[in-house]
Give the backbone structure.
Amino acid sequence: MHFTAPECAVTVRVFSKRFPCTARSARLARRVTAATLDRWEVASEIRDRAEAVIAELATNAAIHAWVRGRGFRVALRWDTTCGLLLLEVTDARGDRALPRSATPTDERDAEAESGRGLLMVAALADRWGARPHPPSGKTVWVELDTAGL
């Protein structure tokens, strides 16, 4: 007698990769994210948003959270059952306040060449935040709703 196990649809896909803290690594993180989401057949609208978010967060990790000999990690988790794509960038710099979105408070801030990255992340995300990553470091996470796309 021969039994065949029923085929079950994959409902959760995960990916994680560490990168050194360099500008080149931030670009590579964006490309790897796009390629992974292409392989998973994520809708192009979601993939484009995810790629922009990872580009910004990886650049922030490489530039602002640089610690000698330590890198940053990009993690992706797509749960097709609940329609949620989770993006995380974890760095080794936990000695600063957790990032939060802010609006420029005066004309000088509004004309600054940097400081708008988290505003862009907030605009692209359905939900986002940051949490400590013990023993040192932090994780910035972004959720993108994928249901119905």
